[in-house]
Each structure stands twice: as structure tokens, then as C-alpha cells.
């Protein structure tokens, strides 16, 4: 009896030791402190002059939602479209001065902060989207981003907004056809300079007054995207549409650099990744819209004119080279043209 009892005691002791070691091991795993990083939450404003219904507006709405989801709610963006927080120039300067957190805006930034890069939107100079984005993805484009950064603006991504064409009552095929033509232009200096070298008579008319100006012959022609021609019903006052594709209009999604630098590495990665993806989405919408607006112009009776783009480029080549010698000194004419191949 005594032997049996000792065996039982031994078994019980062994069981207790084994069970205790398992409990201790499990307990050590369960009570190990969690390694979590607490990120600061940002509530920021994003402004654009583009309409909420435009490809840019839709791309930004997707960007806002994606950033919130992928940052786990640590970056909340309030989107203001349709020029609610000012015109493009206002948006640029406000982001630069930290009065505005983010903006999507266009070519005005080159005039304001990087005039030596205005060859990127010079009429008839850039040959295609591939040409433009080869430049933007090159060392030239990186230096442009650095130029913006020096002025307090961090570039997140680029958007292929539109391609500008020419509408007129006069049929335009060759450079000689625009001689003395009264052409309405926006206030971009490089636009005015290049077209003036083609001997047009430039005129400045507010977009809200453009239809009347064309109707009353204050302006004889205008340029812009097919969307502009359609939404303003310029097909009612212009007979011809020449697909000059003279400017590949890109715009940027920007954030104040101090704000960007104050975010965690993960939050910065989220902004950059979402911007890249959602601007590609906006690009796709823009391409679809352009085809639809072009069809609408033609359906309303505009005559499609095949313009000699190379003739315009050749006519402007001496102007381009002069600009590279005195203003566009960050690169050379030949270097830029290499990216067109």
C-alpha cells in the first residue's frame, strides 16, 4: 500500500510541474507588452479650382477616401472644389505660405516658382504625353520638384488634365493661317510669347465672357480643351476645330512641405501611394472625357481640321532655342528633344 501511494504522489507531483511550466510559458506569451506606434492625427484642407464633376475632382474624391482608409483614419482630408478657396494662383501661394494644407492646381506654378521650366507648357514644343512624362520622370522633373520644395511645396503626383486645341471660324492648317488672327489666350506668359512669335494678335478675355467675345468678333479664335469648347457651347460661334495638341496640360497634387515632413514615414508613404494611384484614375477619366467632348463638338457641326503641327514647331524652333539660351537654362533644347524619341 505504501509503494502505491508513493507512485501516485510522484505522478501527481510530475503532473503539477508539467502543468505549471505550460501555464507559465503561456502566461509569458500573453503578457508580453504589445509594440504599437501611435501616429498623430491630421485634419487637413485640400483645395482646387476644378469642378467636383471633372476627372480631377473625381480623382481627388477617391484620393480623400483612400487616404483615410489606408492611414487608418489618421489623415482626414476636407476637399474644396470649384474654386471655393480661391483661384489657382491663390492656392499655390497659400500652400507655399502654410495658409492652406494641400492643393491641386496647374501651370500657374511654373510662372510663380519655376519660370525656367515653362518649356514644359510652351505651345507646340512637347510632342506627346509620353514625351512630357519622360521629362517629368527624369532628372529634369526631379529638379522641378526640388524647385517647388524650395518654395514650401511638396509634389505628390501629376495628373494629365487635358490637351489644348484651336477653335476658329477661319480654317487653320499652316502657321501662315494664324497671321494677325485675334486669339484669346489665358494669362500664361509663355502662351503669349509663343503665339506672338507666330504673329497672332493676342487678346485677354475672361472665360465667362468668351462666348460673347467670339460672337461679337472681339476675339476670332480661342484655344483650350474639348471640354471647354463643349461646356461653353463654343461650337455655336466657331466653325472649325483644329486638333493642334499644342499643349499637354499637366497639373500637380501638392501639400505644404512642412506639413508633409511632420508626418510619420508611413503616413508620407500613404499620401504618395494614394496620389500616384488616384491620379492615374483621374487620367483615365480625362481620356474618356476628351473623346466624348470631341464627339459632341463634331456632332454639333464643327469641322475637324488636320493641322500641320510640325510646320508650327519648325516655325517656332528659333524662338525655343533663344529661350533655352536665356531663360530655360536648366536644360538644353537637344536634351529635351531626346526624350521625345
CATH superfamily: Bacterial extracellular solute-binding protein, family 7
Percent of residues in beta strands: 15-25%
What is the straight-line distance between the termini? 100 Å
CATH topology: D-Maltodextrin-Binding Protein, domain 2
How much helix, percentage-wise, in residues? Answer: 40-55%
| Total number of beta strands | 9
Shape: globular
Which CATH class? Alpha Beta
CA gyration radius, whole angstroms: 30 Å
Total count of domains = 1
Instruction: Report the major sheet.
Output: 9 strands, mixed
Order of helices and strands: HEHEHEHHHEEHEHEHEHHEHH
Outline the structure in words.
By secondary structure, the chain is of the alpha/beta class. It has one domain (42-338): Bacterial extracellular solute-binding protein, family 7 (D-Maltodextrin-Binding Protein, domain 2, 3-Layer(aba) Sandwich). It has 13 helices and nine strands. It has helices at residues 2-30, 55-70, 88-96, 108-113, 129-136, 139-150, 189-197, 210-215, 226-231, 257-262, 265-299, 309-326, 333-338; strands at 42-48, 75-80, 102-105, 153-168, 182-184, 201-203, 221-224, 240-256, 303-305. Strands 1, 2, 3, 4, 5, 6, 7, 8 and 9 form a nine-stranded mixed β-sheet that branches. Helix 2 packs antiparallel against helix 11.
